[in-house]
Automatic annotation (TrEMBL):
Swiss-Prot/TrEMBL GO biological process terms: cell adhesion
Keywords of this entry: Cell adhesion, Collagen, Extracellular matrix, Repeat, Secreted, Signal
Superkingdom to which the source organism belongs: Eukaryota
PANTHER family to which the protein is assigned, alphabetical: COLLAGEN ALPHA (PTHR24020), COLLAGEN ALPHA-3(VI) CHAIN (PTHR24020:SF13)
Residue span, VWFA domain: 9-182
Pfam families linked to this entry: VWA
Species in which this protein is naturally found: Chiloscyllium punctatum
GO CC terms: collagen trimer; extracellular space
InterPro entries: ECM_Assembly_Org, VWF_A, vWFA_dom_sf
Subcellular location field: Secreted, Extracellular space, Extracellular matrix
Protein name: VWFA domain-containing protein
Lineage, top ranks: Eukaryota, Metazoa, Chordata, Craniata, Vertebrata
Length: 231
């Protein structure tokens, strides 16, 4: 059951390369739909954006494209694999940072709404993921990484905000096994954006699943941050 009044800007970045393939892509699509059905979607609550990627990212919709759950689910259920042999996760992350987490695309980071990226990947990136991963941490973006099959564990840890936000399954058929944990994390995370006094915010998961409700607790650690921060 969604928590009343929560606000999130959540962008999903989905591996659409040949690593996934046409047989497995419907499983990814169903997994994504099952998560969305448990979020309190609305223009003044949880906003959703989506992009697919292989050698580069292709936007499906922005945070302000749709305002209702029905519209978003209709789009997601109609997704088709774009395909591609190359997997450039670094470039895709950079693209999402540049074009999705902006005011013009519907981001509410200036209002203090948590900015969340959920990466679903199934292979090793052919490019460097560290620069965009570092930038996401500087911007206090909360990044989840869901890896299936041949996902690279080292790259997953590099990209995620912290190790507690890395989720792995051996096969795509096992994605439903982590649905509750991912959904609970999305509902309970608390990481405000970088404040004007140049504070860096780091969200750390401090407990794992503690009950059937699978509620996950977070602590917020504030550290001085000296670099210039651009809106």
């Amino acid at each position: 059951v969604p928590e009343g009044g929560i606000k999130r800007d959540i962008v999903f970045l989905v591996d659409a390369s040949d690593n996934v393939g046409r047989t497995n892509f419907p499983l990814v699509r169903d997994f994504l739909s099952s998560i969305l059905e448990h979020l309190d979607i609305g223009s003044d609550r949880v906003r959703i954006g989506l992009a697919q990627y292989s050698n580069y990212a292709e936007t499906e919709f922005y945070l302000n494209t749709y305002s209702s759950e029905d519209e978003i689910l209709r789009h997601v259920k109609g997704l088709r694999l774009r395909g591609g042999r190359t997997l450039n996760t670094g470039a895709a992350l950079d693209s999402v940072l540049r074009y999705h987490f902006t005011r013009s695309a519907g981001s509410r980071k200036d209002e203090g709404v948590p900015q969340v990226l959920v990466l679903i990947t199934s292979g090793s990136s052919g490019d460097d993921v560290k620069p965009p991963a570092d930038k996401m941490k500087q911007d206090a973006l909360v990044t989840f990484v869901i890896g299936a099959k041949n996902a690279n564990p080292a790259q997953m840890k590099e990209i995620a905000s912290n190790p507690g936000l890395v989720f792995s399954v051996q096969e795509f058929q096992s994605l439903p096994d982590i649905k509750e944990q991912v959904t609970s994390s999305l509902q309970t995370l608390a990481a405000p954006p970088v404040t004007q006094d140049k504070t860096k915010v780091i969200a750390e998961r401090v407990t794992d699943t503690v009950a059937e409700g699978k509620r996950i607790l977070f602590s917020i650690l504030l550290q001085p941050y000296s670099q210039n921060i651009h809106s």
